[in-house]
TrEMBL record:
InterPro entries cross-referenced by the UniProt entry: Beta-barrel_OMP, OMP/PagP_B-barrel
Sequence ranges assigned to domain Outer membrane protein beta-barrel in this UniProt record: 29-134
Signal peptide residue numbers: 1-20
Segments traversing the membrane: none
One family name in Pfam for this protein: OMP_b-brl
Native species: Chryseosolibacter indicus
UniProt keyword annotations, A-Z: Signal
Descriptive protein name: Outer membrane beta-barrel protein
């Protein structure tokens, strides 16, 4: 029985690897709570035509407050479910985890220690890919529920590297 389960598991993984698509790219975005723009990188691994996972690393532009410099970055791990796929556009729902990291570097003349903090949140949202050749522009709107409740919008491009 164990051999049958192992053979079935490896066959499923091998077949899904044959049909998998991998896309990587960049993005521009902003959050309503942090209220700053930033840049990031993204990837998407599609298991099949309906489901995939998408990690994202995003850096908000730092802000100099006069007292110190505040910076934020976040790491996202989202699950995508494609509920509409046409020739030109595909629309997906997303759910996942958000890890937000913030740091303030105080000016040296204040003699204050630098501080940092992090929060974990849940992502819920929608996105769309637009197929216009080798480059795939995308837009994504999501809400992050957690320590830093905010709506986030990303605009970017993805490049297929494996199909």
């Amino acid at each position: 029985m164990k051999k049958v389960l192992l053979i079935t598991l490896f066959s499923t993984l091998f077949c899904s690897a044959l049909t998998a698509q991998i896309r990587v790219g960049g993005m521009l975005g902003t959050g309503t709570d942090i209220d700053r723009w930033g840049l990031g990188i993204n990837a998407e691994y599609l298991f099949n035509e309906k489901m995939g996972v998408a990690p994202k690393l995003f850096f908000y532009f730092p802000e100099d407050t006069g007292v110190g410099k505040i910076s934020f970055w976040e790491l996202n791990a989202d699950f995508h479910y494609y509920f509409l796929s046409e020739d030109v556009v595909s629309v997906y729902g997303l759910a996942g985890l958000n890890f937000l990291f913030g740091k303030i570097n105080y000016d040296n003349d204040l003699f204050l220690d630098d501080r940092s903090d992090s929060d974990v949140g849940l992502n819920l949202g929608v996105g769309a890919n637009f197929f216009v050749g080798k480059v795939i522009p995308f837009a994504e709107l999501k809400y992050v529920a957690g320590g830093a409740d905010q709506a986030v919008i990303f605009l970017g491009v993805k490049f297929p590297i494996a199909e």
